[in-house]
Write a structure and sequence with these properties.
With 175 residues, the protein is α+β, with helices and mostly antiparallel strands. The protein has helices spanning 103-137, 143-160, and strands spanning 2-6, 15-20, 31-32, 42-47, 50-55, 61-64, 70-72, 83-84, 92-95, 98-101. It contains 2 helices and 10 strands.
């Protein structure tokens, strides 16, 4: 005979190990004489003198549905409320038991990127214009420099005219 032991200090009483038993004795309080069943994704636990299969997600990664923070599962049983096995993606929010695209979040990100990009391009245009103005003031500007100065000024005006609060913008072509 074999005693199949379970951890009676744990609320789910999971199976722990097995040992040979004496034929003429009763199993201890934390053992059954019936072999537990093992099934993928479940773990045997004692319940009222019988083995029951409990969900086993240990070592899987779950995600907080509010913060999207990943957490490694270290317990037996169902996934805790407020968590999911579904991996979040960029610009998503939890809705109706799934991750969905949060267009407002995505658009806010794109708008911030647009503003940053335009600021960088205006700064670049300002630098080019200053150098060309210096050439003009020092009387060393060529006709090509004068034409280029006008193009950079027009480019800067076009950049400043863009409504960067829209997610889909078209940038002018750099001179």
């Amino acid at each position: 005979m074999i005693n199949y032991y379970f951890d009676n200090a744990n609320e789910l009483k999971p199976y722990t190990h097995q040992l040979d038993a004496n034929d003429d004795t009763f199993p201890p309080d934390n053992a059954l004489r019936i072999a537990p069943e093992f099934k993928e994704g479940f773990y045997p636990c004692e319940n009222n003198g019988k083995w029951t299969l409990v969900e086993d997600h240990r070592d899987k990664i779950i995600y907080n549905i509010k913060t999207k923070e990943p957490v490694k599962v270290d317990y037996l049983g169902k996934i805790k409320k407020g968590f999911t096995l579904l991996e979040p993606f960029e610009f998503c929010k939890w809705e109706q038991n799934k991750w969905i695209l949060d267009e407002l979040q995505r658009n806010d990100y794109i708008i911030k990127q647009n503003l940053s990009n335009i600021t960088m391009l205006v700064s670049e245009a300002n630098n080019e214009i200053e150098i060309l103005k210096d050439k003009l003031e020092l009387d060393i500007a060529t006709d090509a420099d004068k034409k280029l100065l006008k193009k950079w000024k027009l480019y800067r005006i076009q950049l400043k005219s863009i409504d960067a609060n829209q997610p889909n913008i078209v940038l002018p072509i750099k001179p």
